[in-house]
Specification:
5 domains; Rossmann fold; 735 residues; Immunoglobulin-like; alpha/beta; 14 helices; six-stranded mixed beta sheet
Length: 735
């Protein structure tokens, strides 16, 4: 028992106030004491001082704190590591950690029976999650994750209202999932739960082991038929420094794998895999697999392979972007817009110096008929191509390749194109002195009335929205001035006002489709989310129009997966988009989406999809078996099927548990230290349990605070003192 004080203010302030009140009380009585006689006077003063003293005591708020021992049921919880790392045989005599722990637990169960009836003993196993321990289950553990932190907290929570007197954690301490064990230990400390740890395994198991493991596989999400696809990966080679390993890449429908011999550099374990390429010959979803041939002495041969899926597309548009030497933001934002479309593959070539004789910075082969569907010339002077290349480019356009020349100080007439072979196919007359139009405040792009409904300029779902969106876009910084448009040319956009000048001109003659665009559109992409969407859609439609692919002949639906491979337990997000034959989005569709694991007896699982603007989104949680999966989406309108699409993905079992099989005894020691527990060896566990007295677990010390000042007797005494003092003063005429 002890007395505690909690004054209403700082001690110095309370002390000064007490002295001041006592002095004022005595001073107030001083005049009366001089003019009267009798012992009652001093008795009345004593009563007043006693009342004041009680007030001062109350201002200190004294309490008596009493320690009381209460008996209550308690729980002792065993938590055992059942992850794959416990199968490592680094215990005495070549015994596995798991076998050694099961022997220890068999003895511990017998010892725990002597703790008394008031101790409830619970036994759990854990890997990525916590579950009951079956002592008859002697099979080796297969858990591929060790989540010590969640296991400790979940084990304490399962006590269900009974005080957890202690936990015993048995394992190798190799935590690789869930909440940080140190954070969980601090939470248990605040709950008064000590954790005693028992460590198994060697801390040198990983350092001396040998293993080859493929960790990463990087491929483009889509590739067009007969286009080269580059494949990259990462090989972790522990214990094989200086040796040679064989790597191969296997693609579905490919007759022979691509093989490569890799030498592991001295002192290096992580080796990047490059130089692996593949040219698909047919369209479809292709499974790409990297394999490394196992070597003698490997600890884990199951991690020598990694796979993913790639969409091989047909009918795509191949674009080459030839950019001149002047810096501009246009080609950066235009590249992002074009690359956002999975149907378009673009190659960027920056030409920084003029051609010399019959050589330039690009090869003649890029102008070969059929090589590219569309050519983009961005602020490129004519002298950066050879005369032969200008003729080849003009011939490619005559044979059906699309061409767009973008504005810039080195483009059109000022760029020397008026005297080139290409001037013949451009939609406007060119003159060296055409110059630039750069008014203060910029130039707003106004779609021509006749071209507003064209495929190229339809950036909205309908004419009204298209008009509104064009009116909302910010002005261009400037534009090239053009000469007289050629006969049959179409002015797609112009400057505002009665004396408008063309900004965008198109020409379609025979197989050729050519556009001239005098401004820079990157300001639209930076204006807003709506501006960026309009910018992306405009350039997609420009490319498709130039490539003669604006009308695909049928409604299209496409599903895009956020990733192509995911571990069990992860979420796969996906988006579904639908467009009509002109590329306009379809927003009145309902989607039936199913996910199926490939193989015999596969059952489809329905996944809900929700419309979000011009696309629909859904998510699938991989909680089934590892394997190859396919998600199929069917778009319907009024019950009728409009179109379908599918994509494949891979679900794998994460094998992080065996990446580093070394025991972490330091972590187990820290958990015990943080929670106020102890660290024990397997041999010390049973003696430790036998020394535990049931009373230690069931007797719980509580602190009871009893306030001296905050009760009715205190108030009654205070009231009695003041009342008696007032009565004496009243009787003798002092009141």
């Amino acid at each position: 028992m002890r007395v505690s004080f909690s004054p209403i203010g700082p001690w110095p302030v309370v002390a000064v106030a007490a002295v001041l009140v006592m002095v004022l009380t005595v001073w107030a009585y001083q005049q009366r004491l001089r003019g009267t006689s009798g012992s009652w006077r001093w008795f009345a003063l004593g009563l007043r001082l006693a009342a004041v003293l009680l007030c001062l005591v109350a201002s200190l708020r004294p309490s008596i704190v009493i320690q009381e021992k209460k008996k209550q049921p308690a729980a002792l919880i065993f938590v055992e590591d059942a992850s794959r790392s416990m199968t490592v045989k680094d215990e005495k005599g070549g015994q596995s950690r798991w076998a050694r722990m099961r022997e220890t637990m068999k003895e511990a169960r017998e010892a725990a029976k002597g703790l008394g009836p008031d101790i409830e003993v619970k036994y759990y196993r854990f890997d990525g999650s916590l579950h009951d321990d079956n002592p008859d289950d002697v099979a080796e553990p297969g858990g591929r994750e060790t989540a010590i932190g969640p296991a400790l907290l979940e084990g304490a929570k399962n006590a269900q209202g009974v005080r957890v007197a202690a936990m015993v954690l048995l394992g190798d301490g190799a935590s690789n999932g869930g909440l940080n064990p140190a954070v969980a230990a601090r939470q248990l400390r605040t709950q008064g739960v000590p954790v005693t740890t028992v460590a198994f395994g060697s801390e040198n198991a990983g350092a001396t082991s040998k293993d080859l493991a493929l960790r990463d596989l990087v491929t483009p999400p889509t590739v067009f038929v007969k286009n080269q696809m580059q494949v990259k990966g990462t090989l972790v080679a522990r214990g094989f420094s200086g040796q040679t390993v064989d790597v191969e890449m296997v693609v579905e429908d490919q007759r022979e794998p691509v093989r490569k011999e890799i030498k592991i550099p001295q002192g290096t374990e992580v080796v990047p895999l490059t130089g692996l390429s593949y040219i698909p010959q047919t369209a479809g979803e292709k499974k790409v697999t990297l394999r490394v041939k196992p070597k003698d002495g490997e600890l884990i041969p199951t991690n020598n392979e990694i796979s993913t899926f790639v969409s091989v597309m047909k009918g795509g548009v191949n674009v080459v972007y030839l950019q001149g030497p002047n810096f501009t933001w246009e080609y950066k934002f235009l590249m992002m817009a074009i690359e956002s479309s999975p149907d378009i593959e673009v190659d960027l070539q920056v030409l920084r110096r003029p051609a010399a004789g019959d050589k330039s910075q690009v090869e003649d082969s890029i102008f070969a008929p059929g090589k590219y569907d569309v050519y983009i010339l961005g602020d490129l002077p004519a002298d950066h191509l050879t005369a032969r290349q200008e003729k080849l480019l003009t011939a490619a356009v005559d044979h059906g390749a699309g061409l767009i020349m973008l504005g810039g100080r080195s483009s059109f007439g000022p760029g020397g194109w008026a005297a080139s072979e290409l001037a013949r196919v451009l939609p406007t007359q060119l003159h060296p002195g055409d110059g630039q139009l750069e008014p203060e405040g910029g130039i707003r792009f106004v779609p021509s009335r006749d071209a507003l409904d064209s495929y190229v300029l339809q950036v909205g779902p309908n004419r009204t929205e298209t008009t509104r969106m064009w009116n909302s876009l910010p002005p261009l910084a400037g534009t090239n001035r053009f000469g007289q448009p050629k006969l049959s040319a179409t002015i797609y956009g112009h400057t505002p006002g009665p004396k408008s000048e063309p900004i965008m001109i198109g020409l379609e003659t025979g197989k050729a489709r050519v556009l001239a665009f005098g401004g820079e559109t990157w300001v639209w992409a930076r204006a807003s989310d709506e501006g960026r969407a309009a910018h992306h859609k405009l350039w997609r439609q420009i490319i498709f129009w130039l490539a003669h692919k604006e009308d695909q002949g049928e409604n299209q639906i496409k599903i895009k997966l956020d990733q192509r491979r995911l571990a069990i337990g992860q979420k796969l997000g996906f988006a579904v988009t639908a467009h009509d034959t002109k590329g306009a989005p379809l927003t009145d569709l309902e989607y039936d989406t199913k996910v199926t694991r490939e193989g015999a007896n596969a059952q489809a699982e329905t996944v809900p999809v929700y419309n979000q603007g011009e696309e629909a989104r859904g998510a699938y949680y991989a909680i089934g078996q590892p394997g190859d999966y396919k998600v199929t989406v069917t778009a319907k309108r009024a019950g009728e099927v409009v179109a379908t699409d599918s994509a494949r993905f891979l679900v794998y079992q994460d094998d992080r548990e065996m990446e580093n099989p070394a025991a972490d005894r330091r972590l187990l020691h820290d958990i015990a230290e943080i929670t106020g527990g102890e660290s024990k060896s397997p041999e010390e566990l049973v003696p430790y349990l036998k020394t535990l007295n049931g009373k230690v677990y069931t007797e719980h010390v509580t602190l009871t605070e009893r306030k001296i000042w905050d009760n009715w007797p205190f108030l009654l005494i205070f009231t009695a003192l003041l009342t008696l003092e007032w009565w004496l003063r009243k009787r003798h005429g002092w009141v």
